[in-house]
Amino acid sequence: MTILRRALQSAAAAARANLLPGILLQCLMVVFLSAYVAHEGTRIFLAEVARVRQETGYLFAFVSYATAAALLPEILRIAFFQGGRPTRRNLWLFVTAAPAWGCLGIIVDFFYRCQTGWFGSGTGLMTILPKVLVDQLLFSPLISNPLTIAWFIWRDERFHSTAWRKIFRPGFYMDRIFPVQVSGWIIWIPGVALVYSMPPLLQIPVAVLIQAFWAMVFTTLGEARDKTL
Fold it and tell me: Rounded to two decimals, what is the model's pTM?
């Protein structure tokens, strides 16, 4: 219970730290939804994005995740927390985060294709519910979060082999992955339910905006933990 309480406290602190950019991303999401409903040009544009995604396949997944989770958070960090002044650290964080998030985008794209094959492409409750459960109880805690956390530990060790002693040790899952997973559940359980329930043309922009916010929370969790060590 203590571990769960600490994880919830860390998640709340990370969300508060990113409140302003989070509000901006939520506003952008509302704009997308409103424009989709009211503006024919927006629907045409999103249809074109969907066509490009279909034609480019996993390349689109890589670029969209790298943009949403590596580039956009750094832009928001500069705008909200650095007074509009970029630094070399922003470039370092982007360059070292983009490959990880981009590769995760490919994995997620493949997983979503599998989900469609397993449960169909409908937006009804009996389609959305098993997708959310498999996503958040299996894929996220066993694949996406462990891989992502391992990469960033390796990055923080300047890609030195000493990182593996931190990763392959007893208690690593409960110490490093579980707190992040709890934060992920808070954001992604409603997030993936929203994405899966959207019309196909809205799923891409909604997922990208949620991913951008999650990347900022994920980074804040890591930075806060490092300060306490």
Answer: 0.87
